[in-house]
């Protein structure tokens, strides 16, 4: 299997050697390494933030004294925030025993009145768009962002979907255009700075007595898609620091939570009906850029245990947008389409708002007569002039379905995959029928998507009830606040990767070269070892308890009195042939820290 080196923890000393695992001799007691769970807010062998001191974990003394619990959903197409003002008598205390058990008294509020929001659009979030004057980075006072960035002029350079620049797995067709001289982390920093400024205005208007707030007065949870790399998490942390959301990159005041997990917390704490009998819940978080799944069981204490390995992909509403744009290009020609965006920016901004409204409200039956501006006619190709003589394009319900169906099919496949995994679980965890399927996220509020899911025969047979929230687009950001209040609400997760440490195994002439020998046993020089193995602590898909640690014994050091060793940590996206056993690694692939 393929492993990558994640991190090298080196203790300097007079002598250094490598960890040796001898499975045939009695173990010698040594100090054993500790590896925390593979969650976004933990770091493997981190020295700057001790695992036991991560904000929101452990005893109340580990919690930072904060006045506000803040959830931030930095989305592909829309972003937003929600806040909870900690009662004065609770500041500095552990909220798990009070707030998380009394949902009715826990007030979470967010902005719904964004600047320049179209009158016919009601949203808890704002577009993830920022526009720079003359294509150059400037102060946030000169930038346009959110709804204001859509109504820009020819001197502004608009950047959207910048979140998708963080992951190398993003399909090329969906990757955002980053202007020369700009970096994604800088653009995200600017957008988050604008969002922070709006958030501070919102707090000042609702809680005028709270003045001179600093970053350390807040505990922030930012939500991230399932499957994001640690590099993407680090970039977001850097951007949050630059934006003033946290005081430094290692701040304990920033947590990460997977988007469908956050949505799950909102579903259970804000349910319109009583959830009893330890039910199983499948959360389908259908957002703008990504779709993520989370299947869990809810216990009597409103804590969740993930039952399967969460899955996700890029089958969000942005993929529907891409198919609409391809359709439009085929109707008016490539040159006209580019001039529409480049030269007729105000007309194109109006088209975008009209498309967003049609996309949100599409239920499967509506046609749409799209009006084309007259100024665009001079760019039509010769073979399209007659067809577009009336400057109208009829987009039928069948056309609209052709934009939606490939994306909806992918979402249904993801849901069915989770349901099939539930059926294949071992023992008492096996689930023949999931009690509740929650559809959340901005795209999750679309009627056509909802009906396709509810009418699917496979889903009907394996789901008790499909639940539609009153405000599905706000579930993730509100759930992020619940995660701040009790970050141990997710009691058990499934490991996203296999983790192990590099060790030596005995030389095997059938598969090793003599030149690869790195150590010989001083007591028995005929026993040789090679550094070509990884001892797995945790296999992908294993259940991981909140704030868990893993220990291994049985290590030997090559020489008596040796003061230190090097420990190399490896990760893999594959399940080892022998789970948690020792796996051969012919050529471990190095990776950045």
From TrEMBL:
Compositionally biased spans, kind Basic residues: 1-11
Keyword Ubl conjugation: no
GO molecular function: ATP binding; ATP-dependent protein folding chaperone
Keyword Ribosomal protein among UniProt keywords: no
Region annotated Disordered, chain positions: 1-34
Entry keyword set: ATP-binding, Nucleotide-binding
Record's compositionally biased regions (Polar residues): 22-34
Lineage: superkingdom: Eukaryota
InterPro entries xref list: ATPase_NBD, Hsp_70_fam
Entries under Pfam families matching the protein: HSP70
Protein's name according to its UniProt entry: Hsp70-like protein
Organism: Allomyces macrogynus (strain ATCC 38327) (Allomyces javanicus var. macrogynus)
Upper taxonomic lineage: Eukaryota, Fungi, Fungi incertae sedis, Blastocladiomycota, Blastocladiomycetes
């Amino acid at each position: 299997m393929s492993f990558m080196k994640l991190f090298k923890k080196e203790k300097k000393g007079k002598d250094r050697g490598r960890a040796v695992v001898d499975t045939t001799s009695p173990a010698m007691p040594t100090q054993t390494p500790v590896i925390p769970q593979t969650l976004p807010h933990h770091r493997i062998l981190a020295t700057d933030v001790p695992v036991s001191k991560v904000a929101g974990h452990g005893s109340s003394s580990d919690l930072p004294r904060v006045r506000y619990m803040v959830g931030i959903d930095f989305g592909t197409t829309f972003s937003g925030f929600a806040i909870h003002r900690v009662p004065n008598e609770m500041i500095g205390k552990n909220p798990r025993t009070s707030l998380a058990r009394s949902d009715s008294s826990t007030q979470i509020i967010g902005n719904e009145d964004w600047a320049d929001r179209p009158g016919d659009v009601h949203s808890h979030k704002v577009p993830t768009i920022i526009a720079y004057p003359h294509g150059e980075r400037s102060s946030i006072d000169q930038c346009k962002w959110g709804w204001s960035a859509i109504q820009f002029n020819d001197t502004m350079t608009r950047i959207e979907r910048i979140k998708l620049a963080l992951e190398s797995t993003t399909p090329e067709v969906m990757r955002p255009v980053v202007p020369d001289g700009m970096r994604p982390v800088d653009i995200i920093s600017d957008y988050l700075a604008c969002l922070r400024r709006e958030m501070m205005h919102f707090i000042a208007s609702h809680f005028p007595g709270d003045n001179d707030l600093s970053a350390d007065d807040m505990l922030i949870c930012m939500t991230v898609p399932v499957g994001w790399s640690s590099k993407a998490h680090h970039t977001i942390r850097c951007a949050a620091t630059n934006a003033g959301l946290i005081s430094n990159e290692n701040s304990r005041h920033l947590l990460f939570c997977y988007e469908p997990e956050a949505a799950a917390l909102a579903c259970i704490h804000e349910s319109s009906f009583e959830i009893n009998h330890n039910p199983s819940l499948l959360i389908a978080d259908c957002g703008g850029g990504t779709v993520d799944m989370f299947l869990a069981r809810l216990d009597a204490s409103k804590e969740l245990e993930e039952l399967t390995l969460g899955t996700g992909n890029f089958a969000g509403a942005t993929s529907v947008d891409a198919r609409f744009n391809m359709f439009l290009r085929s109707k008016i020609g490539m040159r006209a389409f580019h001039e529409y965006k480049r030269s007729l920016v105000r007309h194109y901004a109006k088209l975008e708002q009209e498309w967003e409204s049609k996309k949100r409200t599409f239920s499967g039956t509506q046609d749409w007569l799209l009006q084309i501006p007259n100024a665009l006619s001079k760019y039509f190709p010769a073979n399209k002039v007659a067809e577009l003589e009336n400057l109208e394009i009829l987009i039928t319900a069948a056309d609209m379905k052709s934009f939606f169906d490939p994306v909806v099919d992918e979402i249904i496949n993801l849901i069915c995959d989770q349901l099939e995994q539930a059926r294949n679980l071992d023992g008492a965890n096996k689930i023949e029928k999931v009690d509740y399927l929650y559809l959340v996220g901005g795209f999750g509020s679309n009627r056509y998507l909802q009906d396709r899911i509810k009418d699917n025969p496979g889903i009907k047979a394996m789901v008790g009830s499909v639940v539609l929230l009153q405000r599905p687009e706000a579930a993730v950001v509100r759930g992020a606040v619940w995660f701040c209040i009790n970050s141990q609400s997710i009691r058990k997760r499934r490991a996203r990767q296999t983790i192990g440490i590099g060790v030596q195994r005995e030389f095997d002439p059938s598969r090793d070269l003599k030149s690869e020998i790195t150590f010989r046993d001083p007591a028995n020089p005929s026993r040789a070892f090679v550094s070509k193995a990884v001892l797995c602590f945790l296999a992908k898909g294993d259940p991981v308890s909140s704030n868990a640690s893993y220990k291994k014994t049985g290590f030997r050091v090559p020489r008596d009195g040796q003061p230190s060793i090097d420990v190399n940590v490896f990760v893999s996206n594959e399940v080892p042939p022998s789970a948690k056993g020792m796996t051969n690694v012919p050529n471990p692939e190095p990776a950045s820290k």
